[in-house]
UniProtKB/TrEMBL annotation:
One of its GO terms (molecular function) is polygalacturonase activity. Belongs to the glycosyl hydrolase 28 family. InterPro entries: GH28_Enzymes, Glyco_hydro_28, Pectin_lyas_fold, Pectin_lyase_fold/virulence. This is Polygalacturonase. It comes from Mangrovibacter phragmitis. GO terms for biological process: carbohydrate metabolic process.
Length: 373
C-alpha cells in the first residue's frame, strides 16, 4: 500500500497473503457499523456483545501477515456513521448502563498458522487490537500499539488457545491489558515476550480465562512504565484452571498500583467450581518502585506456588500474601517477606532501560481514498 490515507470496510485474508503498509500510508477502518454487522446489533448495546465482524480477519489461513512502517487506524474515537457517539463512547455507556457494547475488533486471527506482524503501527482500535484463537505460530516484531488510556476494552495483543507465539521489540500503550494471555477455549502454551516496552494500560496479564490451562510462558527484558498492574495473573472460580511454568526475568517496573498482582479471586462474587491454581511461577531480577505486591492463592489446598529471586522494590512497597508457598533465591526480596531474609543487593540497572514511546509517524494530510470491497 503506497502513501495516502485509505478507508476500508472489513477485510478477510487468504493463506499466504501479506499486506504491506508503507511508511506514509494509513489504512483506516470505516466508522459505519453496517459494514461490520453480523446480526443487526453492531453499533448498539445488548446482552451478548458479539454483533460485529472484525476489521481484519485471518481464518483458517497459513502464512502471510501484515508488515510495513505504516499505520492501521481503527478510528475508535471517531463518531460512528448514523450515530451521535464514537465506538469508545458506546463502550463506556455500556459499562455505566449495563449490557455489552457491539463494536469491532481491529484484527482477529482464528485457527491459523505462521502469521507475521512486522513494524506495523496499530492505532485507536474500537475494541481489542489483536485477538488470537486457535493459532499455531505467530510473530509480532517491532509492533507499535497506540491508543488512549481511557479507551475501554482496547487490549493490545491477546493470545488465546494458541501455541508458539512470540512478541518482541514492541511498544504498547492502550486502554486495557497491554497483553493478555488467555485459555478460555483451549490450552495456551509456549508464549515468549522478549525485549518489549509497555506504557499506560493494565499490564502484562495471564487470564482471566485460564480454564484450558496456561503453561510455558517466558517474559524477559520487559519495562512496564505507568501500567496500573504490572505482572499479573488473574482468574476465579468461574473461569479458573492451571497456570504453570511461568518465568519472568529482568523486569523493570515503575509507577504501578500493583506491580505484582497474582490473584485467584479476580471477581470477588464469582460462582463456579473451576478453581484457579498457579504453580511454578518464577520471578528473577524483577525491580520496581512502590505499590501493592499481591500473592494470593485460592485456599490452603490450592496455594500459589512461587519462587522469588532478586525481587526488589522500594521499602514502602507492601506485600499482600495469602495462601502462598514462597521460595526465595540467593538475591531474596526487598522489602523482606514474613519469615524471609531481606535481599541486600540493590539493583540499579533499570535507569538505562527506560525509553519514551516512539514518536508517531508524521501527520498524514492525504485525502481519504475508499477501497472497493
Amino acid at each position: 500500500m503506497a502513501s495516502g490515507r485509505f478507508i476500508s470496510g472489513p477485510l478477510t485474508f487468504k493463506s499466504g497473503v501479506t499486506l504491506w503498509v508503507d511508511r506514509d500510508a494509513v489504512l483506516a477502518a470505516s466508522t459505519d457499523p453496517r459494514v461490520y454487522d453480523k446480526d443487526g446489533h453492531c453499533g448498539s448495546i445488548d446482552d451478548k456483545g458479539n454483533g460485529c465482524r472484525p476489521f481484519i480477519l485471518f481464518r483458517g489461513t497459513q502464512g502471510g501477515g501484515i508488515v510495513g512502517e505504516g499505520v492501521i487506524d481503527g478510528q475508535g474515537g471517531e463518531t460512528m456513521v448514523g450515530h451521535k457517539e464514537t465506538w469508545w463512547q458506546l463502550a463506556r455507556r455500556a459499562q455505566t448502563e449495563g449490557g455489552r457494547q457491539n463494536v469491532p475488533r481491529l484484527i482477529e486471527v482464528d485457527n491459523s498458522r505462521d502469521i507475521t506482524f512486522y513494524q506495523i503501527t496499530l492505532h485507536n482500535s474500537p475494541n481489542f487490537h489483536v485477538a488470537l484463537k486457535g493459532v499455531e505460530g505467530a510473530t509480532f516484531w517491532g509492533i507499535r500499539i497506540d491508543t488512549p488510556a481511557d479507551a475501554r476494552n482496547t487490549d493490545g495483543i491477546d493470545p488465546g488457545a494458541s501455541q508458539d507465539v512470540t512478541i518482541t521489540h514492541s511498544f504498547i500503550r492502550t486502554g486495557d491489558d497491554n497483553v493478555a494471555i488467555k485459555a478460555g477455549s483451549g490450552t495456551t502454551s509456549h508464549i515468549s515476550l522478549i525485549d518489549n516496552h509497555f506504557y499506560w494500560g493494565h499490564g502484562l496479564s495471564i487470564g482471566s480465562e485460564t480454564v484450558g490451562g496456561v503453561s510455558d510462558i517466558l517474559v524477559q527484558n520487559l519495562t512496564l512504565d505507568g501500567t496500573t498492574s504490572g505482572l499479573r495473573i488473574k482468574s476465579d472460580v468461574s473461569r479458573g484452571g492451571l497456570v504453570r511454568n511461568v518465568r519472568y526475568e529482568h523486569i523493570c517496573l515503575r509507577d504501578n498500583r500493583r506491580p505484582l498482582d497474582f490473584d485467584t479471586h479476580y471477581t470477588p462474587n464469582a460462582r463456579g467450581n473451576q478453581i484457579p491454581v498457579y504453580r511454578n511461577i518464577i520471578l528473577r531480577d524483577v525491580v520496581g518502585t512502590s505499590g501493592n505486591l499481591v500473592l494470593r492463592g485460592f485456599d490452603a489446598a490450592h496455594p500459589l506456588g512461587i519462587m522469588l529471586d532478586g525481587v526488589r522494590f522500594n521499602m514502602d512497597a507492601h506485600w499482600q500474601v495469602e495462601f502462598a508457598q514462597i521460595q526465595t533465591g540467593p538475591e531474596g526480596t526487598r522489602p523482606a517477606l514474613p519469615g524471609k531474609p531481606l535481599g541486600t543487593n540493590v539493583y540499579v540497572g533499570c535507569s538505562q532501560r527506560w525509553v519514551p514511546f516512539p514518536a508517531k509517524n508524521k501527520e498524514q494530510t492525504f485525502p481519504a481514498i475508499p477501497i472497493k470491497r
